[in-house]
What we know:
There is one protein chain. The protein has 64 residues and is α+β, with helices and mostly antiparallel strands. It has one domain (2-63): Gcn5-related N-acetyltransferase (GNAT) (Aminopeptidase, 3-Layer(aba) Sandwich), CATH 3.40.630. The protein has helices at residues 2-15, 29-37; strands at residues 21-25, 40-50, 54-63. The longest helix is centred in the first third of the chain and has 14 residues, at 2-15. The two termini are 16 Å apart. 6% of the residues are buried.
Amino acid sequence: MQFVEAGREFGRGRFRPDRVKLNVAAFNERARIVYERAGFHVVGSHIRRLDRWGDVEFIEMEEA
Length: 64
């Protein structure tokens, strides 16, 4: 979980956003759980077409 906090603090210090958002591949259950434990919640989803894998669903998350 320290790497999530380190990334969030880096982003806040460098870009000063109002809130932090992220996208994670829907199949990456472990990452989604880590982000939820770090205080993020699901706000949506979308499909991206990737040359190597075709259509991949991504979950949109932001800070609670």
